[in-house]
């Protein structure tokens, strides 16, 4: 949900910090909070935290106070929760008493939109118990409630912001929707980079031409003004510049509109509303109501306030939303007439201290419905990921639990449970609502599932003694995924089920699974095998079963309802067949491709005969035709802005006559479909999977040219190409960094699939519309685009004649012609749904996942999809249901319409009005999901449950799914009694159209499904092929959700604190070393890190650094000096000493044998250190080994050798290289972790020199940094340090042979 209510305290602080007071006198905003914090000791009362008079001096003295709950509840006065005109002692006592007392609240009135204290609760209203945790304290303002209380509200509507004002406020405000004056501030259109678009909207050409023209009002046309049939009026403010007080005085606060408003305050109130709207837009409010707004003694007082913020705008507004603990003073307290800047620090206070005193606004849960720990945990997970994870616990003791993928599918499952059980029983037994979508990772799915299972398997104290608990049902469901790897998400679910298996058995759990989408076969097999593994029967169904079929089966099985039991499910893999495209890979036939003809573009001109047939068909279904009873004031063919390159000719598809940007032309005259076989698109963003999916669809549909003209990726670093497949052949798709460059090179590209993130989607879409001259449509895929951005894009696109689909959409599909991005899912689903050829049915939906279900349903119960669009799940999609319904209505190739709406919004009502008026005549099957909303709200304590989509919440009774279904039914739509009856109704209506001759019967058999190549990696994922690996690794696995070092997860590496030594053990030795061994390795790295700048490696590093080379070059130059003469003695020392020890050579014998071989003993000797000046590093190593190693036999032998060598010369000591080498041999041989063969092998592999290389790299890098920090210049060796020996001098000295 993007629009969330905030506390009154926080809303007033935001206004105090951002209102300027320009043109009016704003009274000081003084607010304080009384808080209840839970006691850490169970059973003890909450701790009451009163505001400190030191922080709020106005609390003391003669100030009279108001105390009220700040919990988003209405009717505070009627509930006895309002204290007026009290001193601080009385206020604090009252607050302490109320905050500890349980109150009973009506189950309605929790939305926070208005504070209607005047309306008493109904006598028979249900109540819920609750405890208050937040109270608001503010000064009591004496005033005349009859003349000085006003009402102002700004609320978000589709085309901008609506301002409502009433001269009467408080309890006398009445029905503001009926009595308040109104002004629409349209969304800004912003700059167009020099282009000159018109402001054309639907309506006559004259009304679209400019700002001041008046046209037929929305009411005259019979449409609601909050949908696409809105027409601008003279009073509207166009939003492209700051709202002015003059406009408000003329169109909102005029004497004609507000006769009861005193003239001396009109200008001040107008200035206040202008400033209020500025803050409203800047801070991305979606609702802001002040009732009453008091004007007395020349000042404006904000008394009661309700507000909502668009949480998707946090990336833009985080700094603006920060609340200071100290209220910014009003202008009259500063003396200068100016206000402190927002976020200003207190004078003299350090900035860091001020930052610590700031916080973000609260978004509280409804009172009486606080978030549980589980819900809070899932909300935190959701905030950390780009996927969607939602959970609402309805009835913790309920026995029906859901784990559903997809925002739309989750609502359908809740509807199905409610319909099967009835609202009352579902209110008791439906335990939760939730959804996961957006391709969550395996670990995220695991955490989500584990949380749900912990709730599901909780046994309440009174049931602990029972041995045979009634069964609990878990529905693991979902629609057909577009791009989510079903097998991958099921792996997370399976892990959680495996962990919870004992608890699931204890509660007699019965698990039912239905899913489709990429790799669903593997996922379902895995779930079925899991059932056998954990001893719990898991019933598994694929996409061939209806989406909610498992609901009824599960409820019958658990004894909730009577009915036919589910068909038997066996454990065999044959129950989950391969989809046609997958099965085709195993066939030996040589036939490739499909049999249908590659026709030209379908004619889209509406002929009189086609319209007559449509009207006749509508009449047969009991729907009023346009000629029978259309109101005379309704134009049966309303106008829309014509796409800039669309032609109006009814006969020639290639004609460009009369094409004009923004020209309002009837949909019936547009000769080219929105998407067709000629459509070419840019992909904005690097989305190779979506590009390949579109190309595969092109190949499947036998397009002659690829639908993807190019990729626009601003971060590409220059123009280049990317490889993709066209069938089995590789092709190159160009990648551009500049939009204008791409448009110039591909003038035929008129569509964009915009994959920009929610942060950049607005800017990217504006740039695309500004720089692609022939642009016809853009699909905005991103979820979380701020509403204000979307509304601005709506206006801009309408002005330019560009069709926007989205945001928050998967796109759409024109079967046999073009598909947007990931629409339709993988190749196998596209084939199963017969999207490679057009059908006769056009549909519109909000949900992308449910669009896939519609594709499949229509392919089985009709002749298939003609065109399908998912408009997106936001509150204000850029194009509405009605936009696309009208497009399909005027397309003669489309014979039947399908609408899948949902709870929330009024778009379906607009469609119903269009049907009732006769504008839409084709038969339509419709259904709005979310019929469970009332039952879920009652179960949740009266708080309406936010479903998966941002727009899926009713703003009034008319916006509920039940109400809209009835409105559509009354208008003449075919609306089933439940979604489960939807397929039968589709088939019935389609068959009747065939019988009437509207749709010609099939005369030829269905063309064979195309046989499509499959990507190698996807075939490998499906287990269809095998291939020998080019590389083998045994130490690291980065394929899963978490990096593995020799089987140990990276989180366990840190959790167990194994350190660098432990990690080295995992990566070098493929095992976890004991703690002493890890510490020894770290000791070696520290000891070998550096030995001064004079040694060869450091010297080389320094010289290279001073030559201006980079870090890698300097480091490598130092490392290349390591060998037998410098630093490379560890391996040699280990080999020599261990061989001598193994041969049982006496130390004297070992030294003599090396002398006879004329070989130096590695690890013996030092230039500086000696027996009388010992090397402390050697002492440290040997002491550590003696203290911690199980045995030090080789080290002891080396020290005996040292006695022999030092007897000859004092500096022939065991040096640090030798000490490390022999100790490491002891570690390998005697730790018990390695066999003798392994220990010898590791020595031969160069492990010990690797330790020196690793350790000394630390020092070399240090020298590089040191020289760069000192800014040392190019090194030149001094000539006086070089012995120059000429050839004749060498010969004279007897060195001629040199």
UniProtKB/TrEMBL annotation:
<keyword id="KW-0479">Metal-binding</keyword>
<dbReference type="InterPro" id="IPR003781">
    <property type="entry name" value="CoA-bd"/>
</dbReference>
<keyword id="KW-0460">Magnesium</keyword>
<dbReference type="GO" id="GO:0006633">
    <property type="term" value="P:fatty acid biosynthetic process"/>
</dbReference>
<dbReference type="InterPro" id="IPR017866">
    <property type="entry name" value="Succ-CoA_synthase_bsu_CS"/>
</dbReference>
<feature type="domain" description="CoA-binding">
    <location>
        <begin position="676"/>
        <end position="784"/>
    </location>
</feature>
<feature type="region of interest" description="Disordered">
    <location>
        <begin position="332"/>
        <end position="355"/>
    </location>
</feature>
<dbReference type="Pfam" id="PF00549">
    <property type="entry name" value="Ligase_CoA"/>
</dbReference>
<feature type="compositionally biased region" description="Low complexity">
    <location>
        <begin position="340"/>
        <end position="353"/>
    </location>
</feature>
<dbReference type="InterPro" id="IPR032263">
    <property type="entry name" value="Citrate-bd"/>
</dbReference>
<protein>
    <recommendedName>
        <fullName>ATP citrate synthase</fullName>
        <ecNumber>2.3.3.8</ecNumber>
    </recommendedName>
</protein>
<feature type="compositionally biased region" description="Polar residues">
    <location>
        <begin position="626"/>
        <end position="636"/>
    </location>
</feature>
<feature type="domain" description="ATP-citrate synthase/succinyl-CoA ligase C-terminal">
    <location>
        <begin position="844"/>
        <end position="967"/>
    </location>
</feature>
<comment type="similarity">
    <text>In the C-terminal section; belongs to the succinate/malate CoA ligase alpha subunit family.</text>
</comment>
<dbReference type="InterPro" id="IPR016143">
    <property type="entry name" value="Citrate_synth-like_sm_a-sub"/>
</dbReference>
<keyword id="KW-0547">Nucleotide-binding</keyword>
<dbReference type="GO" id="GO:0046872">
    <property type="term" value="F:metal ion binding"/>
</dbReference>
<dbReference type="GO" id="GO:0003878">
    <property type="term" value="F:ATP citrate synthase activity"/>
</dbReference>
<comment type="subunit">
    <text>Composed of two subunits.</text>
</comment>
<dbReference type="InterPro" id="IPR016102">
    <property type="entry name" value="Succinyl-CoA_synth-like"/>
</dbReference>
<feature type="domain" description="ATP-citrate synthase citrate-binding">
    <location>
        <begin position="369"/>
        <end position="555"/>
    </location>
</feature>
<dbReference type="GO" id="GO:0005829">
    <property type="term" value="C:cytosol"/>
</dbReference>
<dbReference type="GO" id="GO:0005524">
    <property type="term" value="F:ATP binding"/>
</dbReference>
<feature type="region of interest" description="Disordered">
    <location>
        <begin position="196"/>
        <end position="218"/>
    </location>
</feature>
<keyword id="KW-0443">Lipid metabolism</keyword>
<dbReference type="InterPro" id="IPR036291">
    <property type="entry name" value="NAD(P)-bd_dom_sf"/>
</dbReference>
<dbReference type="InterPro" id="IPR005811">
    <property type="entry name" value="SUCC_ACL_C"/>
</dbReference>
<keyword id="KW-0597">Phosphoprotein</keyword>
<dbReference type="InterPro" id="IPR002020">
    <property type="entry name" value="Citrate_synthase"/>
</dbReference>
<feature type="compositionally biased region" description="Low complexity">
    <location>
        <begin position="203"/>
        <end position="218"/>
    </location>
</feature>
<comment type="function">
    <text>Catalyzes the formation of cytosolic acetyl-CoA, which is mainly used for the biosynthesis of fatty acids and sterols.</text>
</comment>
<keyword id="KW-0963">Cytoplasm</keyword>
<feature type="region of interest" description="Disordered">
    <location>
        <begin position="618"/>
        <end position="666"/>
    </location>
</feature>
<dbReference type="InterPro" id="IPR036969">
    <property type="entry name" value="Citrate_synthase_sf"/>
</dbReference>
<dbReference type="InterPro" id="IPR033847">
    <property type="entry name" value="Citrt_syn/SCS-alpha_CS"/>
</dbReference>
<keyword id="KW-0808">Transferase</keyword>
<dbReference type="Pfam" id="PF00285">
    <property type="entry name" value="Citrate_synt"/>
</dbReference>
<keyword id="KW-0444">Lipid biosynthesis</keyword>
<dbReference type="GO" id="GO:0006085">
    <property type="term" value="P:acetyl-CoA biosynthetic process"/>
</dbReference>
<keyword id="KW-0067">ATP-binding</keyword>
<comment type="similarity">
    <text>In the N-terminal section; belongs to the succinate/malate CoA ligase beta subunit family.</text>
</comment>
<dbReference type="Pfam" id="PF02629">
    <property type="entry name" value="CoA_binding"/>
</dbReference>
